[in-house]
Predict the 3D structure of the following.
Amino acid sequence: MSQTVTLRIYRRDPELDSAAKYQNYQIELTPGLTVLMALYHVLENVDKSLAFRASCRSAVCGSCGMHINGKNMLACETQLATLGNEVLIEPLPHLPVLKDLVVDMTTFWDKYERVRPYLIALKEPPPSGKERIQNVEDRKRIDEFIDCILCACCHTSCSTAWWDKEYLGPAALAKMYRFVADSRDEGGAERLKIVASEEGVFRCHTIFNCTEECPKKIPITFGIQEMKKKVMWGKLTGKI
Amino acid sequence: MLKHQVIIVGGGLAGLRAAVECAMLGVDTAVLSLLYPVRSHSGAAQGGINAALANMPECKDDSPAKHAYDTVKGADFLADQDCSETMTTDAPTRIYELEHWGVPFSRTFDGKIAQRPFGGAGYPRTCYAADKTGLYILHTLNEQAVKQRVKVYNEWAALSLASDGAQNHGLVALNLQTGEIGAFAADAVIFATGGAGRIYKRTSNAMQSTGFCLAVAYRAGIPLKDMEFVQFHPTTIIGTNILMTEGARGEGGYIINKDGERFMQRYAAKAMELAPRDIVSRSIQTEINEGRGLPDGGGSVYLDLRHLGREKILERLPGIRDICISFLGLDPIEKPIPIQPGMHFIMGGIDTDKDGATILPGVFAAGECACVSVHGANRLGGNSLLECVVMGQRAGAAAGKFVKGKASALKEAVLNDALKKTSAEVDALLKSSGKERLVTLRDPMQDAMTDQIGIYRDEKPMTEAVALLRELRKRYRNIGVDAKNLKFNLDLLRTIELGGMLDVAEATATGALARKESRGGHSRLDFKTRDDANWMKHTLAYFTPDGARLDYKPVTITKWQPEERKY
């Protein structure tokens, strides 16, 4: 017996539509059908004007973060069968919509760039010319945070980032923590100064939306609190 | 008109590495990419990147020369040996540089970069970071590009080059976000746009791996080289064909048929599961064809990791475990994974020398879209990420040298003509009353490539495929699009891309039909052995409106005379 699911998709071109429309599409549920493949089915067979982002379809490129039945997730790794008979698909919240499910990521990337998202090494590479030595335990400390795919599911689930547009937000802070926790990084106090402000780590009110909605299960809130501790210590010792 | 000294098309590993190189040389550099760079398919590479670092106790006497020999033998001796040696010689420097830039490689007990065994390699030579090596390198290179303040044009699709025949002057591109078509003047263009997996139905490649920019170069008169050599990865999960890294076998995973037999003992008794990919894929396909595949699997066998144990899987292979849970609903700690070979990589591509230069001055290419040739007829696992960083750096340096300290000779008129022509073509497509559609031409192309230009090939099905692809190219003239709004118009973009995909598919099939031997990834039932006397040569496909015109050029042999491949 074939089962059908109703996709209820947010449709809007801000230049043409003053408000969003929600359009329904009936989809036959086949084994293994993901939300992303259902969107491709709509695009190719039902409504060719639909706009969404996607590429790898295997949960690694971070293109297809969407707001699905009220939660941010990757469309590509989400099985349609787990979502009930009516599935509401909307763009990531609180970013300007370019068209349908495609949002303007400009501010997201700006914040990423603001945290100096690269390894800062003051000393030259080791005289051997070979790799720096990093022991297994030190390497393990960054295990979770290097998994970030910059999908923006965390950033757009953060209710603090919704109302404070200057707040760096969980994705940029998680990227910062990836370096703060890396034994090879020598950014130290200079790096922490970037986030030692109201718009940095202290704007995090430990709501945990980011951690809950991260498709890669990165403990983002934990990383932000670790940086708060380091910043406070830096302030107490006069380094920041 | 926007202008840069160097424009790099594509923001994956090769493109970003080239961009960082050009920026460090002080050249005005921009990346123009269909995707935000971190969305590129390099990020899906899992298992690792090869370099003879000799970090593991069992590989103390490894060397770039041994790495080159393994590469050339893996290539079934079609690689240009000087080029393979250049790649393996550059390898350690490039890997150490990645580490210095912050790539979080997994570590040995004494804190060095960890290395694992991979197929066709004499030593554990594959440097890895769990099973997400590509992701971590991609993000690190993006970070370096941010640090170097490389300008990036996000979500632009390059549509055509602006060549006057003697020199290239830039390119014409479509801004997906607005629908605007613009011309970019550039003294040098570097293509780094990745593979063409989507000309096949069953592929490990991203939705965006269309190979369209191979057609952009091809249509501008640059030959495509060795396109018939297509790599089928032995282990892609059934249904979606998402990759299960070769690292799974490097860590000790088995491949078993429906009877539970490790059948590789009948095909490569010594190397077993770690024979090169062409051999393992053929072995799996033979098992399936002879009825020893999984009964309900639609052409599959098992990749079995259970004996590796929970701890090793969680530490070394966490990414593929997550994929299995999300896409197959099974945990490889407890159950074997149903897998099948899937199209994975094109050994062929835009014909370049070992500095990424093409025959058209001002156009370079690097990474999977290029063919140097370092991989010959079959690429070894772990050599593609390596090719990206080595050739990205080399192409960046060569393009930088090409543009530096020389007066720009760009002709605006040539660019304006190209812009006018391409804009008119897109306009015609939007206004077309043609009855053909994306799906009506794409699906038969993908089916023909998978079924007839697949793992095993034969005269008759290949002849039919070539005829079909030529027919589809004719029918493409009668194609139309339904979505007319220019903004983020996926229907339009994908229909434009299909035209290029058909050109690339036709060149691939035509090259395959012509090559009357079996070598590496090209395996013919009617010509079962390698024929060095007649076919030790590279195929060059030149674009003509009616299809590929083939020519050939010699293979460079330096140290290693062709021998039989045994594993």
